[in-house]
Structure prediction request, 515 residues.
Amino acid sequence: MAHAKESWGTRIGLILAVAGNAIGLGNFLRFPVQAAQNGGGAFMIPYFIAFLLLGIPLMWVEWAIGRHGGKHGHNSTPGMFAVMWENKAAKYLGAIGLFISTVIFIYYTYIESWTLGYSVFSSVKLYFDETTFDSMKQFLMSYQGAGAGVHFSGLTTAYIFMTITLLINFWILYRGLSKGIELLAKIAMPLLFLFATVLVVRVFTLGTPDPMHPDWSVWSGMAFIWNPDFSQLSNAKVWLAAAGQIFFTLSVGMGTIQAYASYLKEDDDIALSGLTTASTNEFAEVILGGSIAIPVAVAFFGLTQTQTIAQGGAFNLGFVSMPIIFTKIPFGQFFGTLWFLLLFFAGITSSVAMAQPVISFVRDEFKLTHAKATVLLGVLAFICIQPVVFFLSHGFLDEMDYWAGTFGLAVFALIETILFAWVFGMEKGWTEITKGADIKVPAIFKFIIKYITPLYLAVILAVWSYQDAFNIFLLKNKAAEDIPYIWASRGLMFLIAAALVMMIAKAWKKRRQLP
Prediction:
């Protein structure tokens, strides 16, 4: 069945949608944790270098690949790669993008549902009787079904919020590009910035909450983030962490930006639009995200305890320490609700972007209606999310997050950069980036995209493989009781990959049969 090509209603809608794709939970949870774990201010120097040498180049590359593919009728990376490289392997390399966005969507949506749940818990003060770190952590674990608690005796509450979150995601996706995703972005993104600004103002007016600890202040937290310890710059771990954060924060390497850009017209600007979305994301992450969780944690727990909390990961910071703080401040019920709604809006604008490439692929290649493609993915996502919910405490989610949400992003980014700059050709690629541009793109980026960015990515992958990937693959330091669940997680990812490969093969077989 033929269907009309969708398009963005307005340019601001497109920019907000792509910015929403990039601005996610990582901006407000992962970024402050990475900064705290890697020397505070020292982290920011390699972070901004990675932004210039990885983030902006990859953003332009992905916008260019997407618009070029859309011109040829492809709204997902298998078709886009096949247009750039006339080789039967190209479409299967593009399948990696679909695989990554699908896997991340499955577990990301579950985490996103926690933020919706916690916004309700904040509004009714459900956790306000938990005043210690241990008791608040037990509250989170009991909600996740990983332990007994006073408020939750099983997974029922978490399951309800997971189902509601999935339904909201697919209702938005069902409405299409302009009436669904773009409308969401126009509503959610302004609210996100409003909520974040209110929270930042509240944080800055806290001063020193505990007179017994005058060094525990918001300004001590800000100093920790922005005063660099230059000795940390010799630590390769800090540079790798900074580069990794750029992947997460800009949502590059997962095929979502390409899908959004494919709905542009051939001469629509991508240079200024790409730079604007990247800059918007950085403002949300560095200025807003960096001014909330860490400074307020230092004010209430001190610098040493905040570093310990950060070592426990983003969940400890966002779902344990922040709720404790809300129990201690005036109008904590209001600010807690605001914080978790902020996270929910950040999450849902990202999750719908992850689902869009797969919907586009199924719709375009198998000639299904948008409604049928959306319902099909919704049913499959609901099935695949079940083990994530029930086996969370056994490393099921962590395994998916590492191979798809960490290592996989760098792999796909390296593949698309080489394909764009070396196979498609940097001259043609540069023409694609600058076509219709509303700004003059500095010529130095032509050199950076062709040489520096792929080398940077190759080094990251090599070091990650040496330091982590081999040990993780071989299940080193894994608890014996978790190993079956980890293999089950790998099995689910293999089934998703195999299904995508079979779908691509079938789609291209139909194409060859067309007159």
About this structure: The mean pLDDT is 92. The two ends are 16 Å apart (CA to CA). Residues 189 and 300 are 29 Å apart (CA to CA). DSSP finds 20 helices and no strands in the chain.
